[in-house]
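Encode chain A's predicted structure.
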Amino acid sequence: MAPDVSDTFFATKKIPGAGTIVLQNTNGPCPLIAIVNACALRGTLAPRDFLHHDAAVDDSIGTTTTMTTTTGSEEDVGGVHVDGLLRAVSNVIMKRQAKDAEDANVQRTCADALEALPSTARGMDVNVKFSTCDGFEYTSAIGIFDACDLMLKHAWVVSAEEHGEATRDAVERASYNALVERLIDLRTRVEESSRAPSTATGSVDSTAGVSGSSGKDVVVDGDGDDEYSRERAASSIAGGHRAADNDDESDKLARAMHELMIIEDFLDSTRGQLTQTGVAETRDTMRDGAYVIFFRNNHFSVAHKRDEQLYTLVTDQGYIHTDVVWECLGGARDGEFVTATFTPFQAHVSSAPPPRAPTSTVESSSAALPADFLRTSSDDERRAADSANASTLTEAFASATIDTDADYAAALQLQFDAEDEERRRREAVNATERQRVVANLGASRAQSSTTIPPSRTTPSHKNKSKSKSSDCVVQ
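Encoded structure for chain A:
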């Protein structure tokens, strides 16, 4: 049973120069998300058409509120619910209906698509055909892509050059469902044959002198009864027929086992639902700059062609705070992450956020105290905060890298190590500064017998714990 995602909130991410995309989590309705992202990237959907209006969109001016992430890219504040995705896709379909009002086929396709649209929130059944990258068994749900004027492609294509003629002949004319049914049938036949007892081949007693295979020239040696001899001859003839039938069954079983091995080997070697033949065919059938819906590993995403290279849109929510936008598909750069400008992604050290402005009377009074006093009076608290921040960074890093690609995890580890090294360097500088300040205060106290007036001492002790939040910089 498909998970209920009606109350799920999907985050969004603004791609510089391209638009806003919806990100995917573990329970995301990927067909809807892929359609919305493809339409957004090609400019037929604006962020206000699908974003959560209360959190992210100002309808009065038609703009989306954004924030700057630590990597320098912009990210949308808010996101979208499933009902927003359904509303956006239905609007695209109805616009297509209005545009091609005189085309009966388009009208029928759009009507069926609107009827099937709500079910896509729980997923979509797809039956791939292995003969071509455009091969899918047509259903009303598949018609949603046609109604949105989007091509649906896959790269699970068989060919004699890549897989051999025997595999091509066994797989090419089948769909995935038909191939699985054929696989089950062959396995059942082989298993039943292995359990069946062996059948006699109808050998004949040599003393009978009967030719059991032809049934002719029956010769009886000795003085045996003619009727008995005729029965032995008939039995020998029947045995010859059984032997011929068994030979035929053995041939059928051998062919079944051979076909079973071919199908199993193909499905096992292409368990990623991708072949080089399919990637090349998908690339060659797309025009440069086009966006299509791409099906792979039981998941719908967006594929894009640029300068003869295929890219798939990275929509995993774990990448929200990075510059990763696309992943190369096929060729020498297969699996490489790139940014919105299609340049290789490189992890980098993020800059520290700017100091937060005081927002309360307590923070204002703390900020009014001398800087030297605050730094010398909260050394222990600052060290505790730094330790807590380091633990928070470690937990955040571990959480952000769950279920992500190994290459990207390695990149994040490098970035984290660099940030950690920068944090230790700053701690060393701050420690040196604190020692200097403490030395200066000691010298000044030795020269003067006066103490800090009560009017300054009292508020400082009250506000020490609260002032650290405004003065402490999280690395």
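The first helix runs from residue 30 to 41.
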